[in-house]
Structure formats: structure tokens, C-alpha cells
Write a structure and sequence with these properties.
alpha/beta; four-stranded parallel beta sheet
Amino acid sequence: MAATYLAQLAWPEVPPDSLLVVPLGSCEQHGPHLPVDTDQRIASWLSDQLAQLRPGLVIAPPVTIAASGEHQGFAGTLSIGSAVLESVIIELVRSALPSTGVGPFAAVLFVNGHGGNIAAVAAAITKLRLESRDAAVWNPQVAGGDSHAGRTETSILLHLDPACVRTERLEVGSTDRWRDIAPKVLTEGLAAITPNGVLGDPRDATAEEGARVCAELLFDLQGFVADWRGQRES
């Protein structure tokens, strides 16, 4: 089943009662070896795969610049901040699901690829549901995975697009647990913890591990959507 992309449709071609899927990424440093659009690549790939497996989905253009303030100080990072991101999510959903009920979309799903977006999107979804707008967000969770630009994300990119990984620049970053460094990262930024922008050790990353992680994430995403839409459609 081919994915349907909103950007490629004329307005009469937008299928009625469809689920609008919005990939939500970031534009932020991912160490010296991964591109700044790493999160967006992952979110877009998952959205594309989901649309190929489940009918009635339309993929929106991705949100590519989001809340990445903790990565300031590294070249290439762009951020609109949590408050603005929350407003963007709210207005985007309001436009897709107008209060008049007139529109082609039944609901909006955000496929989030960046942990720094979680709080803003959760706050936005809470407000939207109070307005009776059917929106949800899925956040990836990798058991045993590292936090940022380490083995987990590097393995995923080696699977999705190996040419984008600068393998000659693989180097260990901070390997402290996130729970131990989170307060300092959130107050002083990632550069205060890791000069190269890496949380974890990408040197043992493999495409095979990336394929396994991607399959697990896609399975989890499918289950989330099935449960969410089943509750609405039953």
C-alpha cells in the first residue's frame, strides 16, 4: 500500500475521514557523526511505514524545527522553544479539525522523534482534547537505548540511510545515566555535559541493530494507533 502525502494532493483529492499523521522532528546537533535532521528522518520513516500498513492515513509535511533549547551552543541547532511549539501544535490541529466539524480529517496523530518535544506536545494535546478535538501523540521508547546520538540513533541511521553517518567521526560521549545528568542538561544545556554532543557510545552501532529497533518501534506505533482508533471507532 502506497503512502498518501498531503503536500502532493490537490484539495478535492484529500480523502474524507482520514487520519492526519504529522511527523515531528527537530533541527539539532547529533554529535559529530549524524545529521541535524536525525529526529525528523526517524519520525518521517515511521510515519511512512505506518501509512503503508494501515489504510485511511494521510501524511502531513513534517514539523522540522521544534523545541531544542538544550542543544544551543552547537552549530546547526535551530529551536522555536517549548511555548511556541505548544502553540504551533494547537493551531495546526485546530486548522485540521475545525470547530465547525467541516473538514476531511477525523483525527490528528503526531509521530514524535525528539524527546525535547514531549512536554510541549503533551500540554497541547491536553488543551485540544478539552476542545473536543481528537488528537494524540506517540513517543518512541527503546528499552536499553541511550539518550542522544549514541548507539541507538546511530544504529537506526545506519539502517535507514548509512551514507549519512560519518563513521570516521564516531566517538564516545557522556555515558552517565540521563536521570543523573538531566537537571544540569535542562538548566545549563547539553554542552555542559558532553563537549561533542553525544550521550552514549555510538562506536558499536550496527545497521542490524538499527533494523531491529526500527521494527520494534513500528510495531509499538501500530499498536498505539490500533488501540487509540479502536477506542474511538468501537
